[in-house]
Design goal:
about 210 residues, single chain, alpha/beta
């Protein structure tokens, strides 16, 4: 039974688009894209959710904390869920925050470090690394209350897909541009709505059998 780990940020965690600075609400398990993926693939697969609000590719967040650094936490995930067959990496949106000063190519290279870490892993009992699917997040939509946090990020978000495609090609891993499938919600400009979660999960489910 292949094991798939979905490693991402709030859109993997299933955050409902927010109208203001409130505690995040979460879509039910079956409505989040990893849940949709699980249901579509069926009983022959194990799908594990590893989403966290605010997670970056490779940076400590000076406001939200060092635990948001996806590169630091990834070895724990790989060993915790070993053996795993596929690591799905869907990160990059939080790296667009103004305070982190990342360019689009920097963010993609940060995702590349995650791929490198996965390829170097050899967790028991089989001692081989998982396949990797890199997913570029959908570009930002019209920003509302998050406009200050993501100042000057919209253009960079539109360049992420081409930069991440470069990184995936260089490392010979599968790639999916989520922006060709879904759009960020106009409610906050960042998160996927329920329909976006569903469409993304179904698209990934169609891709997984071609990877494994």
């Amino acid at each position: 039974m292949p094991t798939i780990v979905c490693y991402g940020d709030s859109n993997t965690w299933g955050a409902v688009p927010m109208e203001g600075r409130v505690l995040p609400q979460r879509f039910p398990a079956g409505q989040r894209w990893p849940g949709v993926l699980r249901d579509k693939l069926g009983a022959g697969y194990t799908v594990i959710e590893e989403g966290m609000n605010g997670r970056t590719t490779c940076l400590d967040d000076p406001i939200e904390g060092p635990h948001k650094n996806g590169l630091k936490f990834l070895p724990v995930v790989l060993e915790t869920h070993a053996p795993l067959d596929l690591l799905i990496v869907k990160l990059g949106t939080n790296d667009l925050k103004y305070r982190l000063s990342m360019t689009a190519d920097d963010i993609a290279d940060g995702a590349g470090l995650l791929i490198d870490a996965a390829k170097k892993s050899a967790c028991p009992p089989f001692g081989k690394p998982p396949a990797v699917l890199l997913i570029s997040p959908a570009p930002l939509a019209r920003l509302t209350w998050l406009a200050g946090m993501f100042e000057a990020a919209t253009e960079k978000s539109q360049r992420l897909a081409s930069e991440m495609a470069r990184v995936a090609k260089d490392r010979d891993v599968a790639f999916l541009d989520a922006g060709t499938i879904v759009e960020s919600s106009p409610v906050d400009g960042i998160h996927l709505d329920a329909e976006g979660q569903r469409k993304l999960g179904l698209a990934i489910a169609d891709l997984v059998p071609t990877i494994l």
